């Protein structure tokens, strides 16, 4: 992994201006990619750039409302990333982020929850949340959703399917802060650094099923790869048969 900082002003400026990149997503896509790369200490740099320069492709000093939206989207992206990259990385990333977030941009316990997850856990019947998750799963996977879920149920332990249902129900299908398309970008940012082609192929198509255009999905894919390459990732080959990299070209639409 790199010993020098991966995130530079020039890299962020270039990423923000990626052609066809959807508005207001670059910062949390980069943040989740860094989370997957185990570079949590770089995430505050991305966050600082976003709350000072805005979430769009040009520099516009954001007001309090936009800064709060940026903070909440970044946190929610790192929460949803736990379903793909694991909870320990999300813990480290959210801890690093909080240390660089001013008090007025935090959502503390027992106060307003922008996601309403506490209420979903304690007040709403689990069947309601799990049904929402199943609808979301069906939307992402489309005509192959039943086959994909059946494969997990028959993986040798039906607990794999149960785990997927819990993650889709309580984590991924909550679109109060991140839209379905934005949630798909989070999943791509978690999958590409891990070199898991079967899952990546499904979620590239899933991002289109969630409402993104092919051009938007390809633009998100491109900035994720650029962050990975800046961190030292590359294609594995005869000289480097194992390690942090891709065994084959990164899947595309």
Structure at a glance:
The protein has twelve helices and no strands. It has 253 residues and is an all-alpha fold. α2 (26-36) runs antiparallel to α3 (43-53), α3 (43-53) runs antiparallel to α4 (64-85) and α4 runs antiparallel to α5 (87-98).
Mean pLDDT: 95
Helix content: 55-70%
What composes the largest sheet? none
Provide a count of the helices. 12
Which stretches are poorly predicted, pLDDT < 50 over at least 5 residues?
none
Q: Report, as a whole number of angstroms, the end-to-end distance.
A: 29 Å
User: Which term fits the overall shape?
Assistant: globular
Count every beta strand, where a strand is a DSSP E run of 2 or more residues: 0
Radius of gyration: 18 Å
Describe the model.
- With 253 residues, the chain is an all-alpha fold.
- Helix content is 60%, strand content 0%.
- It is built from 12 helices and no strands.
- Helix 2 runs antiparallel to helix 3 and helix 4 packs across helix 10.
- The longest helix is centred in the N-terminal third of the chain and has 22 residues.
- The relative contact order is 0.15.
List strands and helices in order, with pairings:
Layout: H1 9-16, H2 26-36, H3 43-53, H4 64-85, H5 87-98, H6 117-122, H7 126-141, H8 145-153, H9 159-172, H10 180-191, H11 197-209, H12 214-230
Keywords:
mainly alpha
């Amino acid at each position: 992994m790199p010993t020098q900082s991966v995130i530079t002003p020039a890299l962020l400026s270039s990423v923000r201006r990626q052609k066809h990149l959807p508005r207001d997503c670059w910062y949390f896509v980069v943040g989740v990619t860094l989370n997957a790369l185990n570079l949590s200490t770089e995430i505050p740099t991305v966050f600082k750039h976003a709350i000072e320069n805005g979430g769009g492709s040009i520099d516009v000093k954001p007001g309090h409302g936009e800064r709060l939206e940026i903070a909440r989207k970044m946190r929610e992206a790192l929460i949803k990333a736990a379903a793909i990259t694991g909870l320990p990385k999300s813990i480290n990333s959210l801890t690093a982020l909080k240390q660089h977030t001013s008090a007025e941009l935090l959502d503390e316990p027992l106060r307003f929850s922008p996601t309403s997850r506490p209420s979903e856990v304690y007040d709403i019947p689990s069947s309601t949340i799990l049904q929402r998750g199943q609808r979301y799963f069906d939307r992402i996977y489309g005509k192959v959703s039943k086959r994909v879920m059946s494969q997990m149920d028959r993986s040798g332990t039906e607990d794999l399917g149960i785990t997927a249902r819990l993650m889709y129900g309580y984590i991924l299908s909550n679109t109060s802060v991140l839209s379905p398309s934005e949630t798909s970008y989070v999943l791509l940012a978690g999958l590409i650094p891990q070199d898991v082609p079967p899952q990546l192929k499904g979620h590239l198509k899933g991002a289109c099923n969630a409402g993104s255009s092919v051009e938007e999905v390809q633009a998100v894919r491109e900035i994720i790869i650029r962050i990975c390459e800046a961190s030292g990732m590359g294609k594995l080959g005869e000289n480097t048969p194992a390690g942090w990299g891709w065994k084959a070209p990164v899947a595309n639409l």
